[in-house]
Amino acid sequence: MAYKILLPEQYKTLTSFTELSSVALGGSIVSVSDEFFAEAVNLLKVEPAPSMKGQFGPNGALYSGWETKRHNPTYDWVIIRLGAPGSIVGFDIDTSHFNGNEAPEASVDGLINGQPGSKWQEILPKVPLGPDARHLFQLSQLAPGCSQVRLNQYPDGGIARFRVYGVVAPYEPKDPSEIFDLAFVSNGGRVVNVSDQHFGVASNVILPGRGKDMGDGWETRRSRDKGHTEWLIIKLARAGVLDTVDIDTAHFKGNYPESCELHAINSDLDSPTFDAKWDLILSRQKTFAHQIHSFKLENVKNKKYTHVRVTIYPDGGLKRVRIYGSVEIPKQGAGSAPIKVVDASVSRSGVHEAKFLSHDEFALFGSVCQAYRNLKAVPPGIKVTPANQGTANKFNNLADIVSSFPEGKAGTQSVSIYRSTPSEAELGKEFTVRVLERHPCNNQVFIPMGSGGRVGTDDLTVHARVYLVIVALNGKDDKPDLGTLKAFIASASQGVSYNAGVWHHPIIALEQPTDFACVETQIGGGDKLDCEVLELSEANGLPVVALPSLD
């Protein structure tokens, strides 16, 4: 297959496509011929390779990369499973800091779709490599449907990073009114243009999860000019009707943007120009350090867009951008079906990533009970009134106490206290969901008692006590619809109200014991109308929730 060599300043050409091999997307090492000096897993790391000059281990000098023994009579190889299968556009073979021990030549083979009996096909023929340099290659035509690649180096030596760029097939919702993250990389979203990415690559903003540090976010240079802005353009997975956006500044604590705004356009171009006719869909909003900001988009009703431009003032760093919408205008009217949410936090491997609890994200399942420091961030429909001689604000009617027990089964409204202790669920790890419960005839409100730790959203910045909330809608078989399962991390300043009939896991305290006040209507005596508990079947595969690390 033909290719062309790109100059270093043309690197942005490749980064307008998806880094299919990244460990942040789920890329992994399948097997390797040799990794005596340095492990092949380093090839897939998000951050650039650092210099480890002067550092030594038991086998010799240390390098952040893949390095094999000397004197291989043939060649060394490593097989990589792509995090997101797709059509390959090009490669970045980086020998940074390998000087005198770099791989002199390399080639790349692809395995189409990973089907049994498939044969390796050459994608990039043998090319020369130099010391301590990035080698960028763009294919003359797409290599379609690859699930694995094999990097070969001749005859041996070291490579610091290996990045495979391509296009992910766009997500196809079964129901066109489903709301999902149109920007998410595994759904087919792409960052196609950016003003500056001096410290962090712009395409990181559509990766899964919240990452581990500033290195897997987007960060620009510092500006000194009045009125300066930076921006990036996201090509959505599909043209869609937009609804809400999450702007996450996780880990950016002294270098987050002062504010941001969003524009959108419907264009046939892969990357519309900055001066094209863009519609303002989010007026300029203040941003804060190390938190998720959720905004309802403006002026988007009954319009379909293909691209969104995120502008930050004047500079700084963003960790993630989530843009929720549907491919068709949702049907209106009393007879319309409820909107099913397909979340970017559900990876193609079926692992559900816990998100930070917010009013809009939880609306299908119940209500969030919290106060807001910034009254402009109060969701529509919540009435705020001054109280206590002007010393307080009252956020009215956040959750009604409702019940619909049949005649002769009258319940009693009461307040109970649950003392919840941490279980096997831990921040930064995965948790298997084995049981769900529901309250068919009443809602249930949980209010944590204790210090007001704050996590994740516009008003929640520093975590203290946190807990895990897992919910799912009822399915057609009167069992949980696990396709709607969602997980949330909530703080001690947030309560939740589960709607009647919503399946949920018993609340799980994280890090330390937490007391919860529970307001509900009960019959008592173990009646199933109060609470129905269902153990999930392992035969059908148990849902897995990935919890973020809050460090």
UniProtKB/TrEMBL annotation:
It catalyses: (S)-ureidoglycolate = urea + glyoxylate. Pfam families: Allantoicase (PF03561), Ureidogly_lyase (PF04115). Keywords: Hydrolase, Lyase, Purine metabolism. InterPro entries: Allantoicase, Allantoicase_dom, Galactose-bd-like_sf, RmlC_Cupin_sf, UAH_cupin, Ureidogly_lyase, Ureidoglycolate_lyase_dom_sf. GO terms for biological process: allantoin catabolic process; purine nucleobase metabolic process. Residues 26-168, 188-327 form the Allantoicase domain. One of its GO terms (molecular function) is ureidoglycolate hydrolase activity. It comes from the Eukaryota. Homodimer. Belongs to the allantoicase family. HAMAP family: Allantoicase. This is Allantoicase. It comes from Sistotremastrum niveocremeum HHB9708.
